[in-house]
Amino acid sequence: MPIPNTPFSWHRNKENLGIWHGRGKVAATGVGTSPTARRWDEKPETSMGALTLAAIRKAIDDAGIRPSDIDGIVLTPESTTGVTNDPNTPPPEGWDKVFKMVDYPQAGITRGDIDWVLLNMPELSNVQFKMYGTGCMSVAFTTTAEAIARGHTHTCLVVRGWHNLAGRYYVGQGAAALDTASGPFKYGAWGTPACSTAAFPFEEYCRKYGKTHDMMAAFVVEQRRNGLMNPDGFYSQHRPEMITVEDYLAGRWIAKPANIYDNDLPVQAALAVVMTTAERAKDHKPKPAYVLTHAQTRPETQGVTPSLESWERLSDKMGRMLYEGSGLQPEDLDFENMYDGFTLFHQFHLEGLRFASRGEKRGYALDLYQTDISIEGPNPVSPSGGNSGNGRTRWWNHRDSILQIQGRSPSQIKKPANNGVSGAHMPHFCDSLIWSSSPD
Predict the structure, then answer these.
(1) SS (H, E, C) the chain
(2) Per-residue model confidence as pLDDT tens digits over 50-73
(3) N or C terminus of the chain with fewer C-beta within 10 Å?
(4) For the whole prediction, is pTM greater than 0.90?
(5) For the chain, which domains are there?
């Protein structure tokens, strides 16, 4: 029987749903992160699949439980936003001597696969619940929270691996992988860098509110600082050089007004997290990070590129849904870890959440960047360092939110981390969660 994707009805994508039925009943405990690499060297031992298995074993060990305690797994099968092999491409020589294989030849190479994981981790002997949270690990997190709250699983792994093959990365559909652009892709994915989808609304934002691209420098520099504190990040492992405001201002344009430092760096890595019931979490080794709610937005209108109006409207909606479902208010957030894959859209998330807004609604976030947004300051912005400070995964922010609540983040904020938020990816296409140190 095929493994299902998340049922549509599980997503909290409407307002006026009230407090989430699972509020405080679900918690994250164990966290496992693989080593990082810039690209895959085509050795089985360093593949995305190998990194995934390593991350799972670390998460289980970190939780202080046995593999046989795991009864569920939710995995994001997509493992890149760049170049992917043809699904029928055979694995490299020697692959079958290291791993057992499933019918899908690219499993563990350019696609995450639950059956492949279970076949190569026989110690996961009691897994009954299996589901794919497609597209983004954010979906896998919200899916797992909902599955536990609904009683489908009690101790569940949340998993995503990323691969990065040799070749050009994400410069339009044709340049990245295919010879032609067809269907809807021909309108927006041929010839333009991916960051253009952030650059256009950002430019509109700056005109509307009287801001400049230079005002982003403080945020991007802080992101690198936070990322370099993380021993699991790509930059701390491979390029431990700090950047300066001057570096950012001199960065070459990729899609003006997005420069090279506004783009995240593709890497290869994997993350696994153990999530469980609030009751069982008491017996796990780390302090629980409770889920108070989750929410989802998706584009309401389609076009070649998103507009400032749609980004503001939908990030506002995200903020309202999160506060409604959790019972919190903006002033209750001690930190935020929203997505920054293109740095130029981070402030849309901030303003939708009204984080450190001082009563303002829109156009204030770049001014906030000029204040103390460090982990030592009163308004810690993206203490994880995000993709910008660690490499492209879409999950550093979720990982760090859990660790912040547990009090063991390598970039731990100095004030108490009682409530925080993480979400990814775009301001109009996002899945988010609110994390708390208390189930109440």
Answers:
(1) CCCCECCHHHCCCCCCCCCCCCCCCEEEEEEEECCCECCCCCCHHHCHHHHHHHHHHHHHHHHCCCHHHCCEEEECCECCCCCCCCCCCCCCCCHHHHCCCCCCCCECCCECCHHHHHHHCCCCCCCCEEEECCCCHHHHHHHHHHHHHCCCCCEEEEEEEECCCCCCCCCEHHHHCCCCCCCCHHHHCECCCCCHHHHHHHHHHHHHHCCCHHHHHHHHHHHHHHHHCCCCCHHHHHCCCCCCHHHHHCCCEEECCEEHHHECCECEEEEEEEEEEHHHHCCCCCCCEEEEEEEEECCCCCCCCCCHHHHHHHHHHHHHHHHHHHCCCHHHCCEEEECCCEHHHHHHHHHHHCCCCCCCCCCCHHHHHCCCCCCCCCCCECCCCHHHHHCECCCHHHHHHHHHHHCCCCCCCCCCCCEEEEEEEECCEEEEEEEECCCC
(2) 999 999 999 999 999 999 999 999
(3) N
(4) yes
(5) 8-168+266-281 (3.40.47.10)
